[in-house]
């Protein structure tokens, strides 16, 4: 890894940032708190 060029490290950083933005964006949109949905209560679930 020490022999990789600076260009390679910059590309890696850009792709990591892009992946993190997609991950956080998806998580934010699918979050129960963001959509104000609540988990089902134990009384409403059948055993």
How are the secondary structure elements laid out?
Layout: H1 6-30, H2 32-35
What gap, in angstroms, lies between the N and C termini?
A: 54 Å
Spell out the helices and strands N to C.
HH
Apparent shape: rod-shaped
Structural class: mainly alpha
Number of strands: 0
Organism: Micromonospora thermarum
Protein name: Cationic amino acid transporter C-terminal domain-containing protein
Domain Cationic amino acid transporter C-terminal: 1-30
InterPro entries: CAT_C (IPR029485)
Q: What features would you describe in this structure?
A:
With 47 residues, the chain is mainly alpha-helical. It contains 2 helices and no strands. The protein is rod-shaped, with a radius of gyration of 20 Å. It starts with 5 loop residues before the first helix and ends in a 12-residue tail after the last helix. 0% of the residues are buried. The mean pLDDT is 81.
Concise account of the structure shown:
The chain has 47 residues and is mostly helical. It has two helices and no strands.
List the keywords.
Cationic amino acid transporter C-terminal domain-containing protein; 2 helices; 62% helix; 47 residues; mainly alpha; transmembrane; rod-shaped; CAT_C; transmembrane helix; membrane
């Amino acid at each position: 890894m020490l022999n990789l060029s600076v260009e390679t490290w910059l590309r890696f950083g850009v792709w990591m940032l892009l992946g993190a933005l997609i991950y956080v964006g998806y998580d934010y949109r699918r979050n129960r708190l963001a959509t104000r949905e609540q988990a089902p209560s134990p009384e409403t679930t059948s055993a």
